[in-house]
Write a structure and sequence with these properties.
Strand 1, helix 1 (12-28) and strand 2 form a beta-alpha-beta unit. By secondary structure, the chain is an all-alpha fold. The chain is globular. Helix 4 packs across helix 5. Helices cover 38% and strands 3% of the residues. The protein has helices at 12-28, 68-73, 96-107, 121-136, 147-155, and strands at residues 2-3, 34-35. The chain contains 5 helices and 2 strands.
Length: 156
């Protein structure tokens, strides 16, 4: 299985041609299935936006025109997972539920909350992304972030 992503088209004929070209290339590479639209992994804009077109894009989530859904589904692609985004305005106090979760974590002696040591930024970034890999490993579509990606992300 390979991924087909970064689809941008002005009309259905262009979309069909782009998808067909990608599918042909995948077949030549020996692939028998494609997941689309999804860029390199779940870390880079997975999915097709089917609801919420009136909202601004969310970080790391696809944000497509509503016209894309029928174009893609016409190529016999079907949903396999529903992905959600949640909006939380961090300029305002957190809702009571989030406040209780944070307070619970702060009271837990096994959890240590500290600031990032910018003098050890690469090391700190590696620690954060290692925790992320561990926390996400059982999630659908998970692809571990590699050491090279960790180093790249830390530098950016």
């Amino acid at each position: 299985m390979r991924l087909l992503g970064a689809l941008e088209a002005d009309d259905e004929d262009i979309a069909k041609a782009l998808i067909a070209t990608a599918e042909d290339w995948l077949r030549k590479e020996g692939m028998t299935r494609a997941m689309a639209p999804m860029n390199l992994s779940v870390w880079e804009e997975p999915g097709l936006l089917v609801k919420g077109h009136d909202h601004p894009p969310m970080v790391m989530m696809g944000h497509h025109s509503a016209k894309y859904q029928p174009w893609i589904e016409a190529r016999d692609y079907h949903p396999v997972k529903t992905l959600y985004t949640y909006e939380l305005d961090i300029t305002k106090p957190f809702p009571p539920l989030i406040q209780r979760i944070v307070s619970s974590g702060e009271r837990n002696s096994r959890i240590k909350i500290r600031g990032v040591d910018l003098k050890k930024f690469d090391q700190e970034a590696a620690t954060i992304l290692d925790i992320l890999n561990d926390a996400w490993r059982d999630n659908w579509g998970f692809v571990p972030i590699t050491d090279t990606e960790i180093a790249y992300t830390g530098k950016n």
